[in-house]
Each structure stands twice: as C-alpha cells, then as structure tokens.
Amino acid sequence: MSKSHISAKLRKLVSDRAQNCCEYCLIPESLTLVSHQVDHVIAEKHGGKTTEENLALSCSLCNQAKGSDIASIDVETGEVIRLYHPRQDQWQEHFQMEECVIYPLTAIGRVTTQLLKINLSACLPYRKMLAQAKILIQK
Ligand SMILES: [Zn+2]
To answer: Measured in angstroms, how far is the CA atom of residue 98 from the centroid of ligand 1?
Structure first.
C-alpha cells in the first residue's frame, strides 16, 4: 500500500529485523507464494512516514486486508480501537498462538485479528504445518 519508494537497504533492514516473518501473523516469507511486503504501519495518507519506525514486514494477505486502515471497531465494546503497531507494541501482549490459531488478548488484538482476517487467511494451513515441524518462531 505504499506510494513512496522504499530503498533496497531499508527493505533489507525491515526484513532482517522481522527475521523474514510477517509481523502480524508471523508467517515466514519462505513459506508464502507471494513475497512479504513492507507495510507502512501508519499509512502515508494518515501522515505516516517512510522511516524504520513506521515500517513493518507484512505478508501479502495481512497487508491487503489492512490496506491503509489504522483502527477498527471492537465488536465487544463498539469502541474504535487502533490496530496493533509492530514497532510500539509487543506481539505477545496482544496475541497468543495456540494450536496454530492466533487468539487476541486485548482489544487491540481483537480488532487486528478481525480486520486482518488473521485466522481466516490462507496462512493457517502453513502455520499448522510449521507447528507440526515445531519451527514456529518464538517471539
Ligand atoms: Zn501476515
């Protein structure tokens, strides 16, 4: 969803920092058919910059579902809640992975799993395969 050019150096930094895994659903790039993408956590149209602090590695499915959104409505409370921010939040504070399904632990986790369709995505079979191989990254 980015408009700004992302240099090869910046893309490498983002990929290395994420250990080549999607920073939302944790799928490793090596297991996806489409390359992971550099996501503007806060989209440029909302004033997000093309800087290390605002970039995250995202699989194509999470990135497509997220689009330029920065928040969603929590179904439990009806409140507008911001999405998970990979640079400012800790994954394990907001999500928990059990038997390959990602469960939200907080309102932020809830709106993010909902909006990004994290458990409906084509990533699920890959996560199951990984879990069987016990090579899921431990964040
Ligand atoms: Zn993902």
So the answer is: 16
How many angstroms is it from 14 CA to the middle of ligand 1? 14
- Inter-residue contact 36 to 60 (CB < 8 Å): yes
Contact predicate 59/24, CB 8 Å? yes
What is the whole-number distance in angstroms between the Cα of residue 79 and the centre of ligand 1? 24
pTM: 0.88
Span from the CA of 122 to the centroid of ligand 1 (angstroms): 10
pLDDT digits (tens, 9 = 90+) for 78-96: 999 999 999 999 999 999 9
| Domain ranges across the chain | 8-133
Question: What tokens were used for 82?
Answer: 């911001």
Query: Which amino acid type is present at position 73?
Result: I
* Cα–Cα–Cα angle for 115, 29, 139, rounded to 5 degrees: 70
**118 Cα: distance to centroid of ligand 1 (angstroms):** 7
